[in-house]
Amino acid sequence: MKKIMIALVLTSLQVSAMEIKPYVGAYTGFNSLTGENSEADKNGMNLGAFGMVSFLREDMVFDTSLGYQYNRMSGSSSASKVTVSTQTLFLDLDARWRLNSKWSVGPTLSSHFNQAGIDNSLSEEEKKSGSRFINVNLGVKIAHDTTFGSQDVRFYAAALTNVNDRDRSNMIVNFGVAFAIPEKNNKPVVASKPVIKKEYKTYAKPEEADVKVTLKFARVGFETNAYMLDSKGKTLLTKLGKSLAKNKDLFDRVKVSGHTDSRGGKEYNQKLSQDRADSVMKVFVEAGVPEKKIQSFGYGLSRPVDAKETAEAWEKNRRTEIEFFGVTDRNKLNKILEESLK
């Protein structure tokens, strides 16, 4: 159990290149407890409220929640009517894989602290010894992310069972909703500034490039959920940059644009795409391409080439494009691109 808790904590702390979003939420659920020895079987329901920090990646979602739960259970025994009321502070850790841009599923670990209750089916000594304890539950959670207007909302369902108390079996099913806390200001999302500062003209609408090449992740990739080029990609782009620097009269300007798939939040994908475009631009400038001839843009998930929510579509949309404008000799430029990227 300790190993499971440590693994989930360490996984949740891997927040590099993630979008971090706070939520507040509430839930209700059903409990079914099977007792051993003198404890009677009980059934009931719970209500809870919590604050949550969600770490969003392209492929996974990590949540850390802290909250309060009220639980009331009842049953019957040969001796008396059984009633139990408990109040609990809890800490939840979730790690879910994205099935698509909306749905995610994965394990959830819930630890309840300082639980105080009265169970009149127990002896006075049993009540005293069991009045304060830590209860650990492990299960699975499925979540659905959506929006209502500008409000991000998450619905979820979770099924859990206790794993640290061998004297009882407790099955729990919860249903909840969480609302993202909006930022204090309502300023529009702005892409991060380029690595290399410069002034250049911006274009609101897609332009028709003279020559365009799309860098697929299979050839030129980045570290997962990061903007740093992998070693193979940096080698290929450095080679291309040197060739472009030697033939800078072939084009008037170069536009590097970054694009992501639909998984993850808009803000996160916007920044990630801009950072990746900046990384490619930086390699070109370091290779000798004149800074005044190159510009970078991050479009996030706004310009997909395939609108479907499939692994194949995500792979197509996750790309970097290099476009050349004012080309004087297309055949020569195409030959340079072919030789450099082969």
Report on the structure:
With 342 residues, the chain is α+β, with helices and mostly antiparallel strands. It has two domains: 2-180, Beta Barrel (Porin), CATH 2.40.160.20; 211-341, 60s Ribosomal Protein L30, Chain: A (2-Layer Sandwich), CATH 3.30.1330. The chain is 22% helix and 43% strand. It contains six helices and twelve strands. The chain has an eight-stranded antiparallel barrel with strand order 1-2-3-4-5-6-7-8. A four-stranded mixed β-sheet has the order 9-12-10-11. Helix 3 (231-246) packs across helix 4. The longest helix is centred in the C-terminal third of the chain and has 22 residues, at 266-287. Mean pLDDT is 78; it is low at 1-16, 116-132 and 185-204.
* Percent helix range: 10-25%
**Mean pLDDT value:** 78
Structural class: alpha+beta
**Percent in strands:** 35-45%
CATH-scheme architecture of the largest domain: Beta Barrel
Assembly type of the chains comes to single chain
Strand order of the largest sheet: 1-2-3-4-5-6-7-8
Chart the SSEs and their pairings.
Layout: H1 2-12, E1 19-35, E2 42-56, E3 60-76, E4 81-98, E5 103-117, H2 124-130, E6 135-148, E7 151-162, E8 168-180, E9 211-216, H3 231-246, E10 253-259, H4 266-287, E11 294-298, H5 311-317, E12 319-325, H6 330-341
Parallel strand pairs: 10-11
Antiparallel strand pairs: 1-2, 1-8, 2-3, 3-4, 4-5, 5-6, 6-7, 7-8, 9-12, 10-12
Helix pairs in contact: 3-4, 3-6
